[in-house]
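Side project, low priority. Logging it here so it doesn't get lost.
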Amino acid sequence: MTSTLTASDRNALEFYQQNAAYVAGYGLTNLDRPERLLFKKGRQLMDAALAAAMAVPSKRVPYSEEQTAFIADRYLATEGDRDAVVSAFMAAFPESGHSADSIGQKFSRFRVLDRSCPGDTEWEIDQQVLRIARQYPETFAA
């Protein structure tokens, strides 16, 4: 949802930003009444914008155990072919909400644990990946 600011709103925000440090140091009493009202309006607009920004829900979609196990199984079946795993995941879970990059990152977490790839790039391994990787001790060093 977007809202448009009026010229008065923009003026209040600009006045607030220009005078916030002054008011913090000397207080509102050193401003004339119209300036205090303008400052207050700017502060309210800024607070409302910050509150709205904080209220935006996270786009992060957690992986289910089934989805993570699927990635591990496809990793093993394709001998670590990232593109094949991503394609298979997207076909198996089309409504998952996970992007190809996200799936590739989950794949990479398994690759870090793969005994045949000791020099692979480090990733922070989550507990879900470790739990599933332990089911395949011949491949993954978990």
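Brief comment: The radius of gyration is 26 Å.
Revisit when time allows.
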